[in-house]
Design a protein that fits this description.
heterodimer; A: alpha+beta; Alpha-Beta Plaits; 4-stranded mixed beta sheet; two-stranded parallel sheet; globular; B: mainly alpha; Formate dehydrogenase/DMSO reductase fold
């Protein structure tokens, strides 16, 4: 994995500060100049910390003006000695889709056209985990239905991600803490990653994404839930804006039956490690050698 | 300076023509405008105007791209038999084959361009200015080989036509190595394009080692089919000379390609249907439909039947040497491969999707209009290029034609004289 230039040393920042200030002053004085800068903006991973800072302050200003709320765009890097992992208890999940909507809200997914990072599949108990006989559009009065179980699928945060391998522009990569992220400004929208992903975890902004101003979440991360643009790919980031601040992903928090567990795989005392040690876990499509960090298990 | 005159001359050639020529150009322009306005709409609203969605994330555009890469590859591969059998108009076959290749590559790249969500940011995948994911991403390989292929073919045709224009003997030691180089390059562009799909274990439908060989075999069928028809049109309407025997020889070579193509297909069908694993579902969707979802069944069988009929028309000497049945066969095999690459390659790869869901895809009106835009632009370009080539090679249009006109022996006469 490529070591990131995140470590913005103070001295480096101070040295480039004048450049940054002049740059932003020029950028602010003329709108078209900023548009040109945005167009010429480099891959996030090749930007200097000063450039990142400038870009982020411009974004915060832009988003705050657009939505009438004070926006925070964090670029907080991975925490040392952290590798995030997820575990989902298939025997508890009732298929209520609360996680789907909590995720949409937290991560500012487009409401029209609709984008949802979590897809919940209804499967027949006598067939086991079988995608070909699953249904994502189940719609009964009450869940769970007799004879069915539910498999929520989002990004499996593979350790060997096929999406990254195929991306022609290096617009998507795996962070030090194992989260696969997308640079929305660098993605060209070729959708090769969508074809490569075995889990349908990548979603494309076919139209202009829209989120009503009153529903927008202004606490964002640059590589996560900041407002997206048309024509680029997005995906689950384990709520990067939350987990790097020590919080749980919003799907974990909302789950009414406690089916979702999250933690640091490098911490022997974490809940995920407990599950890996004491339960029988499985990963989806193990034969593809994607090595997911998202585990399914039967807790009861 | 002379090179500038070559451009001026070329421009003069394409600006003059008969009634039929002008009506053809105007017809193509009207189609271009109709298609182009559809594409402008897509730029404004986004790819939401296509029927592609997360389940079926590639569609008609990428199908056309794949087909045209095949046309580009096969057009140049005719050079091999032209040398081996020492066909008389080798230079002409090379020139028209490469003009077709140049046009097809431009059209193929056009289809990629209209398919991406942020077309203006395509530079992100270029070396040096962007962060090209080379060698990991097969798409970057495809950019390299397609650009390389485009440049060498463009160079050869420009070089040959320019030297004919200034009435100088071209240097064989320059042209021949590049023409020979273009043959493995032709194999490379279609192989890499097949690898683009082959590289995705998430899509079992494409994850077959036979994919690249099948691509090449089918391209060898469709590409020469276009040239067979083109040569006949040129022979009727211009001074272009090509013997019946040469056309029949091309058709005979196509029979081998068709037989190999059918053999590869049968090998693939056998493996999938006899194994009857969960991967069969895509083939079932393609040929028999899944439940009430039988959208592709008609066109898939149509492609198979057209291919089979064309094979038999080409196989028997009586129908191969009859120009009516030969041309029917050429059109059939062209259509067969076009349907196969345009729809039956891409759509079943995504249907059902990776989570087993079925999204019914068929091209939207915007996709059809954008496709018409690229095809009419391609036909327009090809018409111009062919017209320039004909004027220079057969109608003795050259440097002095720009100024005073005096009769000199034509290129053909000069070649036959030597």
């Amino acid at each position: 994995m490529q070591k990131d230039s995140y470590d913005s040393s103070r001295r480096d920042f101070l040295k480039k500060l004048p450049v940054a200030i002049t740059g932003s002053a020029v950028a602010l004085s003329s709108c078209s100049r900023q548009e040109i800068d945005e167009y010429l903006q480099e891959n996030f991973r090749t930007l200097s910390s000063a450039e990142k800072k400038e870009i982020i302050s411009n974004l915060e200003k832009k988003y705050s003006e657009k939505y009438g709320k004070k926006f925070i765009v964090s670029a907080k890097p991975a925490i040392d000695n952290t590798l995030f992992g997820y575990a989902l208890d298939l025997s508890r999940c009732i298929g209520c889709r609360r996680c789907v909507y909590a995720c949409v809200k937290e991560n500012n997914q487009s409401r029209d056209p609709q984008i949802q990072w979590i897809q919940v599949l209804q499967m027949e108990k006598d067939k086991g985990i079988d995608f070909m006989h699953s249904d994502v559009h189940y719609d009964p009065e009450l869940v769970p239905e007799e004879g069915y179980f539910y498999v929520p699928v989002s990004c499996q945060q593979c350790n060997n991600p096929p999406c990254i391998k195929v991306c022609p522009t290096k617009a998507t990569w795996q962070e030090e803490d194992g989260i696969v992220v997308v640079d929305y400004d660098w993605c060209i929208g070729c959708r090769y990653c969508q074809a490569a992903c075995p889990y349908g975890a990548r979603h494309f902004n076919f139209g202009q994404p829209t989120v009503p101003a009153e529903e927008i979440n202004p606490i964002t991360h640059y590589l996560g839930n900041r407002p997206r643009i048309k024509g680029v790919v997005e995906k689950c980031t384990f709520c990067i804006q939350r987990v790097r601040e020590g919080k749980y992903p919003s799907c974990v928090e909302i789950c009414p039956v406690g089916a979702r567990k999250f933690g640091n795989l490098l911490d022997p005392n974490s809940e995920v490690r407990y599950i890996l040690k004491n339960k029988r876990v499985l990963v989806l499509k193990a034969e593809l050698n994607t090595q997911p960090k998202f585990f399914y298990y039967f807790g009861v | 300076m002379k090179f500038l005159q070559f451009f001026v001359g070329s421009f003069k050639i394409i600006s003059k023509g008969g009634k039929a020529y002008y009506s053809w150009i105007i017809f193509l322009f009207l189609l271009l405008i109709w298609g182009g306005t559809g594409y402008i709409h897509q730029i404004k609203e986004g790819l939401i105007l296509t029927n592609m969605r997360d389940s079926v994330s590639w569609g008609f555009y990428i199908g056309n791209f794949t087909f045209l890469v095949g046309v580009a590859a096969a057009a140049v591969m005719l050079v091999i038999p032209a040398y081996i059998y020492n066909w008389k108009p080798i230079k002409e076959i090379v020139i028209f084959g490469e003009l077709l290749a140049v046009t097809a590559v431009i059209m193929a790249m056009g289809f990629v361009f209209v398919d991406i969500g942020q077309p203006l940011k395509f530079w992100h995948m270029l070396p040096f200015v962007g962060t090209m994911n080379f060698p990991s991403s097969i798409l970057t390989w495809d950019v390299f080989v397609l650009s390389f292929y485009f440049l060498i073919n463009l160079f050869v045709v420009t070089y040959l036509l320019y030297y004919a224009f200034i009435k100088k003997e071209y240097d064989k030691s320059i042209v021949l190595p590049i023409v020979l180089l273009s043959i493995p390059a032709a194999v490379a562009i279609h192989t890499i394009t097949a690898f683009l799909f082959n590289a995705l274990p998430a899509r079992p439908f494409w994850n077959s080692a036979l994919l690249a060989p099948r691509f090449l075999a089918s391209a060898f069928c469709s590409g020469p089919a276009i040239l067979i028809i083109l040569f006949q049109i040129l022979r009727k309407t211009t001074k272009f000379e090509i013997k019946d025997e040469t056309i029949w020889k091309i058709a005979e070579l196509m029979v081998y390609a068709m037989a190999i193509n059918i053999f590869f297909s049968i090998a693939e069908y056998f493996k999938e249907f006899y194994s009857d694993t969960e991967h069969l579902v895509f083939w079932k969707y393609m040929f028999f439909g899944l439940g009430k979802n039988d959208e592709l069944v008609t066109s898939s069988w149509l492609s198979v039947i057209l291919g089979a009929v064309a094979f038999f028309l080409f196989l028997f000497p009586t129908t191969r040497k009859n120009f009516l049945t030969l041309n029917i066969g050429a059109v059939f095999i062209y259509l067969s491969v076009y349907i196969e690459k345009g729809m039956a390659l891409i759509i079943p790869g995504f249907t059902p999707d990776v989570l087993g869901q079925i999204y019914v895809y068929y091209p939207s009106i915007t996709e059809l209009r954008t496709t018409v835009m690229i095809f009419s632009a391609g036909f327009l370009l090809f018409t111009f290029l062919v017209k320039i080539a004909i004027a220079i090679i057969f109608d003795n249009y050259y440097l002095d034609s720009l100024g005073t006109k005096k009769p000199v022996p034509s290129e053909v006469e000069r070649i036959t004289a030597t």
